[in-house]
Design brief:
The protein has 331 residues and is of the alpha+beta class. The protein folds into two domains: 193 residues, no CATH class; 120 residues, Nuclear Transport Factor 2, Chain: A (Roll), CATH 3.10.450. Helix content is 51%, strand content 14%. It is built from 14 helices and six strands. The protein has a six-stranded mixed β-sheet with strand order 2-1-6-5-4-3, sandwiched between helices. A hairpin with a 2-residue loop joins strand 3 and strand 4. Helix 8 runs antiparallel to helix 9. The longest helix has 25 residues. It starts with 17 loop residues before the first helix and ends in a 9-residue tail after the last helix. GO terms for molecular function: DNA binding; sigma factor activity. This is Sigma-70 family RNA polymerase sigma factor. It comes from Zemynaea arenosa. Interacts transiently with the RNA polymerase catalytic core formed by RpoA, RpoB, RpoC and RpoZ (2 alpha, 1 beta, 1 beta' and 1 omega subunit) to form the RNA polymerase holoenzyme that can initiate transcription.
């Protein structure tokens, strides 16, 4: 099967109407964002894919949706190869870039602010919202573990598990046999099962995150100890701009002391609010309209299993702009 002329598994609508174009841009962005863990790079790749589609004679592309998926996937694989050295020399712990889905995938700033405020934007007749929300729901922890997979494992997992490709369809797109795709999928599932901990977010997840913020702000070591799992792990990405642990911190004693000790370092003027990013409760810390950090937790049985804290101002820039905030970057 030629991926550029494959049968469309959804509605079959070619993306040459505003409705289909918007739906496909969101879907393709969701794929690229998971592949790369970078909202900016995902935006660039989706834009490049559409430029390539527009440059093709219409008669040569019978199924634009399949063509665009193929181009985005292959551009992502090329980008991963070129970025390998940069990631290997990254200062400290690398975490994905947090992003508001509405702002990053071509939606409006109003949609982005509505998502961050926890209220849905006005009803859209563009595409079934439940399906798009499923594609866009993703945590920083999931994205971080995805980046530890090989590029092919990552692509196979996303195409088959998230975007409902068959092994044969994924193999045609990637130049692999169905058997090789099944093996890659097995390795990816094993790695994700071991690396992504906790339960899907719920009301109790939101409350636990709020309690964690309060205990950290007050330096409540006992309170932190009660809400952290024995094998909790914490990762912080300062990107060389902000002071942060250069390696993951493991264990109840070390992580509780780490966050209790932050109380003396956090100015009283720093504010926090919990918003929804890609379906996950996320704590935003900001001061004088400057976004300082985006923090998520993974939790199970009302205990925090993992903490991901993005403080790198370069990775906060798009999120800050979509919310009307700034970062600590000059200018």
């Amino acid at each position: 099967m030629n991926p550029a002329t494959a049968t469309i598994t959804a509605s079959g609508t070619a993306p040459d109407t505003p409705t289909a174009l918007y739906a496909d841009r969101r879907r393709l962005y969701a794929l690229a964002y998971r592949m790369l863990g970078s909202a900016g790079d995902a935006e660039d790749i989706v834009q490049e894919a559409f430029l390539r589609w527009h440059a093709q004679p219409r008669a040569d592309v019978r199924e634009p949706r399949a063509f665009l998926t193929t181009v985005v996937t292959r551009l992502c694989l090329d980008h991963i190869k070129s970025a390998r050295v940069r990631l290997e020399t990254y200062p400290g712990v690398w975490l994905p870039e947090p992003a508001v889905s509405g702002a990053a995938d071509g939606g409006s700033a109003d949609e982005a602010r509505a998502e961050a405020a926890g209220t849905p934007p006005a009803a859209s007749h563009v595409t079934p919202e439940a399906e798009l929300e499923r594609l866009e729901s993703v945590s920083l922890a999931f994205l971080a573990v995805l980046q530890t997979l090989s590029p092919i494992e990552r692509a196979v997992y996303l195409l088959t598990e998230i975007f409902d490709y068959s092994h044969a369809e994924a193999g045609d797109l990637l130049g692999r046999t169905p058997a090789a795709c099944r093996q890659a999928l097995h390795r990816a599932r094993t790695a994700l099962a071991a690396g992504v901990r906790g339960e899907p977010p719920s009301a109790s997840h939101h409350a636990l995150l709020a309690s964690f913020l309060m205990a950290t702000r007050s330096g409540d070591l006992e309170g932190l100890t009660r809400m952290l799992a024995d094998d909790v792990e914490s990762r912080a990405d300062g990107g060389g701009y902000v002071s942060a642990a250069t390696k993951p911190v493991f264990g109840l004693r070390a992580v509780s002391r780490l966050y209790a000790g932050l109380a003396a370092q956090i100015p009283q003027s720093v504010q926090a609010r919990i918003v929804d990013l890609h379906g996950w409760p996320t704590a935003l810390l900001y001061q004088d309209e400057v976004l300082l950090a985006a923090l998520q937790i993974q939790a199970a049985h009302d205990r925090i299993q993992r903490i991901d804290n993005v403080m790198n101002p370069e990775k906060l820039l798009r999120l800050a702009r979509s919310l009307g905030l700034k970062t600590s970057l000059p200018g």
